[in-house]
Amino acid sequence: MANHNKMMCPRCRVEMNHHCDKLVYTTDSQDLGQADPGLGGIIQEFHTRPKCGSGALRQA
Amino acid sequence: MSHSRALFIPVILGTARMGRRSLHAARLVTEELGKCAGVETELIDIARLPLPTNDAGEAIKHAEFSAQITRANALVIVSPEYNHGYSGLLKHVLDSCLKEYIHKAVGIVGVSAGPFGGTRVIENLLPVMRELGLVTIFWDVNFSSVQRAFAEDGRLLDESFTRRVDKFSKELIWMAKTLRHGREQISLD
Asked: pTM for the complete prediction?
């Protein structure tokens, strides 16, 4: 389920650091189909840019 | 990355009630934090955030508040205790962000007119902080009998609070630096 491609900072063009996965429960019918059946929700990955310090997220 | 970069640690005043004494506490914490080397801070007054009340959560994200939390390395929440809890407006504001908080430090300052200094509101806020992805520190500041801690004009009457704020700030700064390093350098994979 995890996305193993390194996320790149759109501004700095450096690899971001994947430091957190958060389980998000949803009632949105569009998202329900993407929920991890074992966990019951969607995993969001949180990434931080070592160069500029700001963050970004994406769905795992 | 060098850790000489300044930390940004805003102070959120968690009440809009008229005549709030928590404003004095929030100003004191902001002033003391601002004296710490390498720390930039500002007071965020939730009474000044024009969030709608006909929706909730990230759907009502306020661009400026979101940008401040994104920039932040840590937060201080100054909350009075109303009927053993925090204000509904504080929760409404906090819920408008999520990704902005992840793996950042938070310290809580409780304020009350009674003898317990907001200990109950702090305990009530802890599980909320955890679910938002914030990392709590184990120092609090408790302004008990706040009406005796500050004069009407906001002057601090009990100087012992500056030492408590200093201890609290040092712990918060350590956690903010540690978590910044972790967010930027330590991978989950």
From this structure: 0.90
